[in-house]
From TrEMBL:
It comes from Flagellimonas iocasae. Gene3D superfamilies: 2.40.50.100. This protein is a component of the acetyl coenzyme A carboxylase complex; first, biotin carboxylase catalyzes the carboxylation of the carrier protein and then the transcarboxylase transfers the carboxyl group to form malonyl-CoA. PROSITE patterns: BIOTIN, BIOTINYL_LIPOYL. PANTHER family: OXALOACETATE DECARBOXYLASE ALPHA CHAIN (PTHR45266:SF3). This is Biotin carboxyl carrier protein of acetyl-CoA carboxylase.
């Protein structure tokens, strides 16, 4: 199963409203859990890939209906409204975030760097593949939201960009 298939599965689970889906194949076990918000859309998606010993079993899918749980209360802070004018660049995949193409090279972008649409901002390693993450907009990098060499989740904010 490749990363695109996993992304499609995550999107399908998010749209279906399921709270948990387990997929077991011959050499792979995936569990996707969603935590719903008050609007009914998923807030967090967690994917775990666990290699399982090879057995002669048929792929199984277990579907758990979404539970109606109250959403956690969040407090809004003043910087949040200030950051609302910025565009958030989010991770399209799950993996490890790297700001540099290699340890001995400079970072792709720094705070204050001007970027154009299509410029590489970082790389995310997923399943031993390095994926370039490109800017969706032109503007100025205002904030880097993730530490170098740290794990990131699908749709996790990575950068704030001022489009003006």
């Amino acid at each position: 199963m490749d990363i695109k298939e996993i992304q499609s599965l995550i999107k399908f689970v998010a749209k279906s409203g399921a709270s948990e889906v387990k997929l077991e194949m011959e050499d792979l076990k995936i569990t996707i859990r969603t935590v719903g918000s008050s609007s009914g859309s998923p807030e967090t998606t967690i994917v775990q890939q666990i290699p399982v010993p090879q057995t002669q079993s048929v792929p199984q899918v277990a579907h758990t209906p979404a539970a109606q749980e109250p959403a956690a209360t969040k407090t809004e802070s003043a910087p949040k409204s200030e950051e609302s004018k910025y565009i958030t660049i989010k991770s399209p995949i799950i993996g490890t975030f790297y700001r540099k193409p290699s340890p001995d090279k400079p970072a792709f972008v720094e705070v204050g760097s001007n970027v154009s649409q299509g410029d590489v901002l970082c790389v995310i390693e997923a399943m031993k593949l390095f994926n370039d993450i490109e800017s969706e907009v032109s503007g100025k990098i205002v904030k880097v939201l993730v530490e170098d060499s740290s794990p990131v989740e699908f749709d996790q904010p990575l950068f704030l960009v001022d489009p003006s």
